[in-house]
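Ticket #4471: complex job returned nothing on first submit. Input attached below:
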Amino acid sequence: KAGVTQTPRYLIKTRGQQVTLSCSPISGHRSVSWYQQTPGQGLQFLFEYFSETQRNKGNFPGRFSGRQFSNSRSEMNVSTLELGDSALYLCASSYGQGNEQFFGPGTRLTVL
Amino acid sequence: KQEVTQIPAALSVPEGENLVLNCSFTDSAIYNLQWFRQDPGKGLTSLLLIQSSQREQTSGRLNASLDKSSGRSTLYIAASQPGDSATYLCAVSLWTSGTYKYIFGTGTRLKVLA
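Support reply: We reran it on our side without changes. The output follows.
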């Protein structure tokens, strides 16, 4: 069974631009969560989607948004990028909410 | 508010040692607890999942225990190897405010010396 995949793996953007990251969950998984990981703040929860609905949201500004499609694939978007948005963005999928999570390899975003 | 703490933050041991990593949480009303390892710059790899009704889980050289009453979980690694060097994180899943949430600890950075 294929694992969680994330694309792209690396991104370099400049301040003010926007970016879209993609996550394909394990087949059959309906819950997708997004996290931001930085050396200073550790792993921080962004949001969770289940059956195309956002069920949970972390404490991030409105520049961070996401969505989930009917095939459970998810995208997250960050608009008006800031230097502080440079981070490893991780996606995790689970069969249902609260269940065992499986993580993708992450997307490394660098904002210049 | 649920808080998850991992002590120590870093650990360095010689190869072959048995070691214990600790995870503490403040609210015992958890749904499950999961242990992960993370290699530098990579995603998290699930190691073990313990449901709230279970006391322990084992996988190879790894054994994780859960004591909800004391708010503690331990990850036991037997006969450590250099390949075990990584950051280990624990995460609790709990039902709160009408939804499930995952709370992660800050991790223990393990280095096993050859």
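The first strand of chain B starts at residue 4 and ends at 7. Closing as resolved unless it happens again.
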